[in-house]
Amino acid sequence: MKKILILSLSCFLVIAFFASCRKKVEETPPPPQVKEQPKVEKVEKPPVKEPILTEDEIFVKKSLEELNAEKPMMVILFDYDKFFIREDAKPILQNNADWMKKWETVKILIEGHCDERGTEDYNMALGEKRAKSAFDYLLSLGISSDRIKTISYGKSQPVDPGHNEIAWQKNRRDQFTIIEK
Questions:
Q1: Under 8 Å CB-to-CB from 90, ≥6 apart: which residues?
Q2: Which positions ≥6 away from 74 have C-beta within 8 Å?
Q3: Is the pLDDT of residue 111 over 90?
Q4: Secondary structure of residue 177 in the 3-state scheme
Q5: HEC sequence for 92-153
Q6: What's the pLDDT score for residue 31?
Q7: How far apart are CA 74 and CA 78, in angstroms?
Q8: What band does 6 get if pLDDT is binned at 50, 70 and 90?
Q9: CA separation for the pair 143, 95 (Å, rounded)
Q10: What are phi and psi of 25, to 5 degrees?
Q11: pTM
C-alpha cells in the first residue's frame, strides 16, 4: 500500500508540476487605442461677394429698357394749347441736362404729346412745337444737338385715357426716352 501511496503521490506531483509549467495563455494586449481624429467641423465658405461695381460699370451693364424704366429723365407738362416752357418745368429740364452731362454718350428722344382736344393735324404740329421747345432749352443748358432727336405723337399716345381736365393735363407733356448710351 505504501507503494501505491507513493506512486499516487508521485503522479500527483508530476501532474501538478506539468500543470504549473504549462504555457500561460498569453494575454492579448488590448488593441492599440486609435486616437480619435479631431472632429472636423464643416466650415461654411462665406458667400462669394460680387465685386462692388462703380456707378459707371452699373450704368454700362443696364439695358436701354432698364434705364428708361428708372425714369432718370423726367417728364415736363404744358398748359392748354401752349408750347412754351413753364416755370415749373425749368428745374426739371435742368436736372435732365445735368444727367445728360454726367452720361456724355447718352442720346435721347423728346416726344411731344397733346391731349385729345383738337384735330389730329393740329395736335401733331403742337406736339412738334412742344418737343422743339424742350430741345431748344436743353441746347441753352449746354447739351449738344447731335444727342437729341424730337418726334410728335400728337394725341395718339395719352398717358391717361380719361376725358377730363386732370387727364388732359397729364397728356400735355414732353417725355424723354433714352435711345442710345
A1: 137
A2: 92, 95, 96, 176
A3: yes
A4: strand
A5: HHHHHHHHHHHCCCCEEEEEEECCCCCCHHHHHHHHHHHHHHHHHHHHHCCCCHHHEEEEEE
A6: 67
A7: 14
A8: confident
A9: 12
A10: -70, 120
A11: 0.70
| Burial of 43 per CB tally in 10 Å (0-12, 13-18, 19+) | exposed
Q: How far apart are CA 165 and CA 108, in angstroms?
A: 29
Let me know: does 134 contact 93? Beta carbons within 8 Å.
yes
Average pLDDT, the chain: 88
Give the 3-state secondary structure of residue 27: coil
Listed by start position, the domains of the chain span: 58-180
Cell of 49: 461677394
CA–CA separation, 65 vs 130, rounded Å? 24
Proportion of the chain above pLDDT 90, given as a percent: 66
Nearest to 128 by CA among 92, 91, 154, 101: 154
Please give the CATH number for the structural domain made up of 58-180. 3.30.1330.60
Of 45, 174, 167, nearest to 108 by C-alpha is 174
* Structural contact between residues 94 and 146, judged by C-beta atoms closer than 8 angstroms: no
